[in-house]
Amino acid sequence: MISGSKIKYSNLGNFRFTLLDGKYLLTTDAGRWIFLERGEFEDFIEGKLAKNSKLYKDLSVGGFIKTKKNELSQYASKYLKLNSSLAQGPSLFIFVLTLQCNHRCLYCQVTPEKEGAIGYDMSKEVAKKSVDLIFKTPSPYVSIEFQGGEPILNWPVLQYIVKYAKTVNKSEKKKLKISLVTNLTRINDEKLAYLIKEDVSISCSLDGPEHIHNKNRIYLDGKGGSYESLAKNIKKVQKAILQKRAKSKNKFVDNLNAVLTTTRFSLPHSREIVDEYIANSFDNIFIRPLSPFGLQRKTIDVIGYSPEEFIKFYEKALDYILELNLKGSLFVERTAAMALKKVLNHKDASYYEMRSPCGAGIGQMAFDYNGNIYTCDEGRMAERMGFDNFKLGNVDVEKYGEVVDNEVTRTMCLGSALDNQAGCNDCVYKPYCGICPLANFIEYGTIFPQIPNTDKHKINKALFDYLFIKLSDKKYKKVFESWLV
After folding, report:
1. What is the DSSP letter of 150?
2. What CATH class is the domain 89-373?
3. Rounded-to-integer distance, Cα 166 and Cα 228, Å
4. Of the candidates 72, 14, 99, which has an alpha carbon nearest to the alpha carbon of residue 428?
5. What is the pLDDT of residues 389-445, one digit of tens each?
6. What angle do CA 144, 148, 153 make, to 5 degrees?
7. Are the C-beta atoms of residues 285 and 483 closer than 8 Å to each other?
8. Which residues contact 118 (CB under 8 A, 6 or more apart)?
9. Extents of the domains making up the chain
10. What does pTM read for this prediction?
């Protein structure tokens, strides 16, 4: 036990620490980190390190020791690099083109309407006003993401937004990105050719092999799961992307991405799911747990699990992925990669669940089919569950400044800043972590729950424990670094 009377506070920087896998892990608010053996840690806090030693220099450079060379201005610069998106303004804009969908997935976050339902499509008038509003952002980046329902079911408005946004951007000169989140079952050759031609990035959901995917992702008409149609169209999209890449030698062409939503059906099959992604020519997988929104509130007894069960599944999947990488196959788990961008590169990962405060209203906004504006995609999901607390206004009424300078936006900032959350401010992973106040509200009835008792905290802590333990091994650190190139 280290005696408090021996600690030399005057030379210590601001850091947090924990004992992890037999070593002390130290981190700073700027995201710098270091492992120390017990003896090294004691010498450090007692001021016994020789100033000409390598360890003293490493601690000084990292901001763990106060010196004239790591003044506040330099430290602030490092902090801003880790949290750069906080100073840019909103850059991600969700466009809910329709609530119509041909699926009724067991975990759907949206609570969709059946295909053909009237009154749930975004009009061109609403689309135009929404595009005009988003280009008021001070951010140099504008990312438009089409969501639903199934956004392809409102194809004319999708095309209208692509054309109009590009027209507006000729004068605004933003770095414009447009992407589509789709179940990929209602796409045809003509629509695919258009998306590829217009550089619209495509993302879909693949929940594993057919016997898993078809339990989760079910057609609304009761005709079973969608795996067969999805697998066929994945191949079409992959082929079209490769063809464009071959013709566009000096131009970046985005990959097809896919998301795995983990259910109880996934848990015994971590390796099989990763193999399914590889078989479909993916070089990455985005593993995410269930969220508390939408239909899963009704299906939780069928598809749910404990945080501990998810953690076990996730770690098994990562173990297998690392095994593949060590054998020479580059394959990335994207949740880990986004965390590692902050840990290894000390850069903002632009992933709103790993920001403090999160992106609600200050990093992203969601535009519903009827012109209502929400803090984020989760905000409009909460509306479908009967909670209108997270609405910022409507494109027919509000101007950009009124949307951003809104008491709801300020509340979201307060509710997602880790400095304001019990148990977070002292956590060694605070520089890399984040929370979703909307998920907390839906699950616990408040945006200020006891974070250490939440499922999300348990999952995040396990993720960072796993990553830092692996980082202490050079062969795994080398793999992680290759994911960030």
Report:
1. -
2. alpha beta
3. 35
4. 14
5. 999 999 999 899 999 899 999 999 999 999 989 889 999 999 999 999 999 999 999
6. 100
7. no
8. none
9. 4-62+71-82, 89-373
10. 0.94
